[in-house]
Amino acid sequence: MTRLDTTAPSLAERLAPALGDRLITPENPQLGTLAATVFAGGDRTPALIARPRTAAETAEVVRAAAESGIPFAVRSGGHGYHLRSSVAGGLVLDTRLLDTVDLDAAARIGRAGGGVTAGVYTAAAGAAGLATGFGDTGSVGVAGLTLGGGIGHLSRRDGLTVDNLLAAELVLADGSVVRASADEHDDLFWAVRGGGGNFGVVTSFEFRLRPVGTVVGGFIAFEASPATLAAVVDAGRNAPDTLSIMVNAMKAPPAPFLPADVHGRPIVAALVCFSGDPDDADAVLAPIRAAGTAIADLVRAQSYPELFAGPEVQGLRATTRTGFRDELDLEWAATALEAVAAAPTPAAVVNVRVMGGAIARIGADATAFAHRDRALMATIVGMQPDPAGPDGRDWVAGTADRLGIAGASYVNFIGDDPDGAVAAYPAATLQRLAEVKRRYDPGNLFRSNHNIVPAGD
């Protein structure tokens, strides 16, 4: 018998009194469904899934995991490209029942449990004409997104998600519960703003809320052209901070709003969000619309939460490579479109997010997200829904080499790379994170992530 064979049953006996039917064992038919993550890869089915509702229950699960030595992972939305929010044969602490949202509109503070999704929080805040800037997908967990940095529709106007984080309640590796803020455990507060899930389980967040009324946003698709790709990115860089944009060189999906003759072929697509005065939107968007021949323009005035609406997709195999750039020229744009055309997967994307604005007005050492001075974030993604189809791994690696995507990268978009943490942070930032890790998780319990090793190990 392996150690795991003997550990899992005894761990189940310990946790059952606290969790009852919220401890999911192999006999429970829900185990496979609850273990599923958005991106698939290998068999990562756990032996147990613990679903706490409170910080106290979370602490009990953490203590039990630490004492048992069983392989251990923490999951919220399950969107991690790294595939480490589940662990084969181990224990998964599933935070999705920590799902409360509490808004103080007068004080402009939003509180969210560690299992809340961006869409749920955004809808609640939007009802009061307020928002905290998260990413661009409603089903993404607030926890994972925030802990890595959080770039999305409001980032150029309001900063990253971590720039709007006021406090976090965490369960540490020893089972203690602490509050991290500018005034309490300030070293931990610095680290969780970009350092990922290395330091504890966040059971609740406090965010700054900002006014957001009607926005003008949506999807514009253009005929594929290097000049168009470069011009759209350039227009986004020169736009006011109230416009956030991401631009894709991508294979056109079989969407009804796109002409059938472009399905599966390269296009240039922009997702925009203008959060200024709606009367100014046409003028701000004019340089983007003038960048090429549009084949679909779905941009419209809408409530901010509507931008987060979309279907939940699971089971895709995804390979990624991500990094930063300061320029995007015609040669780079042509290479990106050529690579997309040659991709072996049906969903292939070279994604470019325009940074700058409020992101760049915060010091590089203010948070663990340190890439404040970079103009663009580029991510290559190959996705495959067919379990028997090519996974795109070689294509992503080759495209990254051709496009010069290497070095510093954004931790939330790194795939299953064993050296992901080394790539994600400048050396000084990584060393500082390692010191915080040594203070709060010296035994490296929280290691099913892009792991930061405690200083001295």
TrEMBL record:
Keyword annotations: FAD, Flavoprotein, Oxidoreductase
Residues in FAD-binding PCMH-type domain copies: 42-212
Record SUPFAM superfamilies: FAD-binding/transporter-associated domain-like (SSF56176)
InterPro entries cross-referenced by the UniProt entry: BBE, FAD-bd_PCMH, FAD-bd_PCMH-like_sf, FAD-bd_PCMH_sub1, FAD-bd_PCMH_sub2, FAD-linked_Oxidoreductase, Oxid_FAD_bind_N
Keyword Coiled coil: no
Cofactor(s) annotated in UniProt: FAD
Keyword Oxidoreductase among record annotations: yes
Pfam family, one: BBE
Family: Belongs to the oxygen-dependent FAD-linked oxidoreductase family.
Alphabetized PANTHER family for the sequence: BINDING OXIDOREDUCTASE, PUTATIVE (AFU_ORTHOLOGUE AFUA_1G17690)-RELATED, FAD-BINDING PCMH-TYPE DOMAIN-CONTAINING PROTEIN
Protein name: FAD-binding oxidoreductase
Lineage: Bacteria, Bacillati, Actinomycetota, Actinomycetes, Micrococcales
